[in-house]
């Protein structure tokens, strides 16, 4: 039996007791050159590249087969062709945007602004808020529309105020001006003047945005209002004009959940107070910004220069075929996914995953039964929620129907708009109907996994079920440290600081006793404080935001702890063999660290610290510092880099 560990990736000069990430991955980091089109690169990205090439082969193979018109295969091929036809795109220039600009030219009132925003939603242009259809957090048996804050062009509200983002903020107006000039919206100095007005308006909009930490709060971001209450919250906002523009079904906004009520109040005031001509400037920018990737090379280059080079430090744009694959994935992802599964996902991988999930669930069950800080009443609810978990592995049971989506091989921007309208209609059509518990929110070819609290489900697409996450030929220890801990991580999200506020039916309901919640929150606060003091090697001098990352950090701790317990269950009490000079427990932790092999450019690492709820990769690998099992496996002693005194280790599950 082989271990499944790539020892060539490690650095023997670094002791695992001091830095598990460096010991397991340091050699790879030292000798690997960051790809020129990447801001961050690691295990996930290498698998994504592999999946991307497999999807490209599927797409081009379909297109070469000259499928019949109207078939989903033809749509896949034609969409990719429309993106790859650079001569046609250059010939058209910015003319595909003309119909949208014509709408803006007719805007003369705040109601017209709302009408335009509704119409633009269908064209793939985001507005002042983004409507999201999902299960109601307090009634998981129905769908409802969530209104999510939007309207800014920088990554986050902090970029408009925080001194650490001053350089980006200073460069932004020039980028806006150049984009508006390149697309012929304004000429000469008019573009610069318009850009100043746009950035001023965005700065006003950003001031009402909630920060990343507040946006994680499931209770705070739940304000259910009916149509009358929505209009009282946003006096003067013409919601009817918006809904008509979006071609929304009758009653779509009879009840909505305002995720950030302050933002909705603020945009109502802005619509009333800001001159309509400035709103026209802003609308033109929203159109150019949203559709820049589908225009002529000069526009694409300027767009990348700011959002790639300036914002993330990435020197080179991704190859065109990769961007084309990304478009097909976005618009017709499940159609491609069906072919991907047929070619690249063996049935025995799913069977092995079922066994792993069963052992992880059993490990969580045993953990809850013995958890000393959790009382009987809360424990009963936790076990009931655990029993209600739905695992989804590999691919959906039923595939999405794309029959109503029209694709034209000569009309790229039109294809993007039609694909967006298709998604808007598909999602709004859910309202009033039964909840589709079979729906997936990732394609099978996506290298990722997720937990959905509204359906209390954990989902593992086919593409993540390969090394270093999962190797059907490898030792159990490495698989439990890899995909096993990832499974535990996703289950753990059901019991993290936010997921723990949902019950087994997916409803936002407090099922905790006050004392148990206080115990949980105290442990979470200790984890926040621990990560607040940490820096990633990729962004020296910049601390992690422990409050932003606490949910993912709880998931990692739970994944590690329960993944290790599940590994012990799998061995049925027998001692694992020594492989590659490592015990079974040591291989488990190596398997975990392999998953987080990676590196990031400093600019990208800083950007991610501001907006990403995940801690940097090296710190995720070294989260093992909290586990007594890690200290025992490697005989970690005081003075070692990853030594944490027993009373300072954070253990939640």
> Which sequence of strands runs across the widest sheet?
2-3-5-4
- The secondary structure category is alpha/beta
- Say how many strands there are: 9
> What is the level 1 CATH name of the largest domain?
Alpha Beta
CATH architecture classification of the largest domain: 3-Layer(aba) Sandwich
| CATH fold-level assignment of the largest domain | Collagenase (Catalytic Domain)
Strand content: 5-15%
> In DSSP terms, counting alpha (H) and pi (I) runs of 4 or more, how many helices?
24
Domain Peptidase M13 C-terminal: 448-644
Pfam families: Peptidase_M13 (PF01431), Peptidase_M13_N (PF05649)
Protein name: Peptidase M13
InterPro entries: MetalloPept_cat_dom_sf (IPR024079), Peptidase_M13 (IPR000718), Peptidase_M13_C (IPR018497), Peptidase_M13_dom_2 (IPR042089), Peptidase_M13_N (IPR008753)
Task: Describe the model.
- The protein has 2 domains: 20-53 and 347-395 and 445-648, Collagenase (Catalytic Domain) (3-Layer(aba) Sandwich); 94-294, Neutral endopeptidase , domain2 (Neutral endopeptidase, domain 2, Orthogonal Bundle), CATH 1.10.1380.
- It has 24 helices and 9 strands.
- The protein has helices spanning 20-31, 43-64, 72-84, 86-92, 98-105, 110-122, 166-182, 189-207, 227-233, 239-246, 261-273, 276-291, 297-312, 320-344, 347-370, 376-388, 412-428, 476-493, 514-532, 546-571, 584-595, 602-611, 617-621, 628-633; strands at 40-42, 129-136, 139-149, 224-226, 255-258, 390-394, 450-452, 457-461, 598-600.
- Helix 19 (514-532) crosses helix 20.
- It is globular.
């Amino acid at each position: 039996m082989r271990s499944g560990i790539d020892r060539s990736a490690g650095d023997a000069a670094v002791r695992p007791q001091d830095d598990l990430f460096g010991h397991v991955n340091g050699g790879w980091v030292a000798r690997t050159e960051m790809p020129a089109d990447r801001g961050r690169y690691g295990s996930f990205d290498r698998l994504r590249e592999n999946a991307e090439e497999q999807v490209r082969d599927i797409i081009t193979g379909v297109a070469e087969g000259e499928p019949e018109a109207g078939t989903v295969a033809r749509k896949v091929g034609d969409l990719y062709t429309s993106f790859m036809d650079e001569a046609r795109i250059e010939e058209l220039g910015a003319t595909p945007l003309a119909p949208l600009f014509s709408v803006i030219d007719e805007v003369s009132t705040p109601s017209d602004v709302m009408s335009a925003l509704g119409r633009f939603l269908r064209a793939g242009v985001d507005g002042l808020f983004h409507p999201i259809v999902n299960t109601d957090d307090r009634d998981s048996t129905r769908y409802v529309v969530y209104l999510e804050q939007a309207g800014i062009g920088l990554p986050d509200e902090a970029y408009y105020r925080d001194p650490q983002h001053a350089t980006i903020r200073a460069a932004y107006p020039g980028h806006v001006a150049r984009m508006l000039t390149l697309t012929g919206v304004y000429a000469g100095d008019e573009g610069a003047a318009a850009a100043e007005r746009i950035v001023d308006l965005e700065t006003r909009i950003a001031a009402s945005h909630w920060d990343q930490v507040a946006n994680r709060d499931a209770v705070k971001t739940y304000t259910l209002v009916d149509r009358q209450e929505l209009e009282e919250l946003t006096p003067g906002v013409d919601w009817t004009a918006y809904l008509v523009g979006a071609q929304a079904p009758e009653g779509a906004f009879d009840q909505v959940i305002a995720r950030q009520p302050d933002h909705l109040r603020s945009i109502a005031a802005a619509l009333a107070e800001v001159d309509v001509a400035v709103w026209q400037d802003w609308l033109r920018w929203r159109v150019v910004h949203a559709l820049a990737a589908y225009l002529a090379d000069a526009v694409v280059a300027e767009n990348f220069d700011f959002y790639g080079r300036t914002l993330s430090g990435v020197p080179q744009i991704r190859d065109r075929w990769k961007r084309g694959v990304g478009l097909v994935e976005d618009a017709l992802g499940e159609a491609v996914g069906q072919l991907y599964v047929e070619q690249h996902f063996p049935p025995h991988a799913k069977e092995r995953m079922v066994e792993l999930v069963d052992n992880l669930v059993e490990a969580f069950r045993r953990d809850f039964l013995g958890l000393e800080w959790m009382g009987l009443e809360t424990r009963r609810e936790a076990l009931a929620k655990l029993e209600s978990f739905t695992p989804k592995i590999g691919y959906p049971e039923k595939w999405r129907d794309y029959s109503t989506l029209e694709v034209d091989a000569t009309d790229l921007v039109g294809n993007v708009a039609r694909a967006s309208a298709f998604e808007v209609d598909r999602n709004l059509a859910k309202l009033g109907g039964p909840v589709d518990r079979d729906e997936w929110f990732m394609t099978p070819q996506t290298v990722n996994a997720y937990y959905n609290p509204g359906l209390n489900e954990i989902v593992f697409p086919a593409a993540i079920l390969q090394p270093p996450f999962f190797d059907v030929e490898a030792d159990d220890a490495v698989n439990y440290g890899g995909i096993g801990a990832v499974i535990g991580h996703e289950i753990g999200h059901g019991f993290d600081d936010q997921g723990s506020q949902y019950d087994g039916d997916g409803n936002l309901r407090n099922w905790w006793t006050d004392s148990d919640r206080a115990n949980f929150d105290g442990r979470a606060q200790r984890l926040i404080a621990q990560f607040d003091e940490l820096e990633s090697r990729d962004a020296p001098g910049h601390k992690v935001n422990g409050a932003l990352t606490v949910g993912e950090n709880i998931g990692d701790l739970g994944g590690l702890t329960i993944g290790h317990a599940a590994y012990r269950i799998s061995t049925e009490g027998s001692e694992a063999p020594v492989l590659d000079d490592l015990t079974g427990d040591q291989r488990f932790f190596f398997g975990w660290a392999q998953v987080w092999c990676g590196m990031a450019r400093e600019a990208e690492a800083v950007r991610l610290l501001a907006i990403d709820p995940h801690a940097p990769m090296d710190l995720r690998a070294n989260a093992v510092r909290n586990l007594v099992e890690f200290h025992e496996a490697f005989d970690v002693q005081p003075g070692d880099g990853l030594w944490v005194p027993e009373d300072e280790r954070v253990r939640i599950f």
